Amino acid sequence: MSNPHYPGYDVLAKSQGVSWNDATRRTIQRRLEISRLPRIFNASQWQTLQALCACILPQPLDRPAVPLAELLNERLYTGRTDGFRRVGLPQQDQAWRRGLDALNAEARKAHGIAFHEIDGAQQDALLHRLQNGQLSDPAWGGMSGKEFFAHRVLLDLASAYYSHPTAWNDIGFGGPASPRGYVRMD
Fold this sequence. Notes:
The protein is an all-alpha fold. Helix content is 49%, strand content 0%. It is built from seven helices and no strands.
């Protein structure tokens, strides 16, 4: 499990140090022990979400993967939101379920099988069309695929990725310095 940018660095080694308080330790522990079972997605949506995560944020094979689908699933299940909703997009959980169903519908229209069943090049091509606003299956239900991609897929998956200690190791981040902050530490 080598880290090419910060060899030997493990943010969890700091967990008992002065920069993490008990609330931080509990929060990080919950992220590490996150449920691997879908809580708001059906089986097809879950498989599609996992395939989408692999396309958007491919992860190195020499370390455990950040559980992107699971982190997003937990966020949606617990009702944590951005605190606002973009015009034209439904609530986050609804947007995700509709978007995953629509992505499957688009894959079936183009290739005869669900998104998670098509090969990587076909997935990438379909995602490029999504990003460019070129998908229009009725399954989108009036939701803009382009907006879904820009404001749910990219933002939510990047947010999930960088909320996890495995990603922190890759970027050399020491984790949250709670409650005092790094500036105030000796």
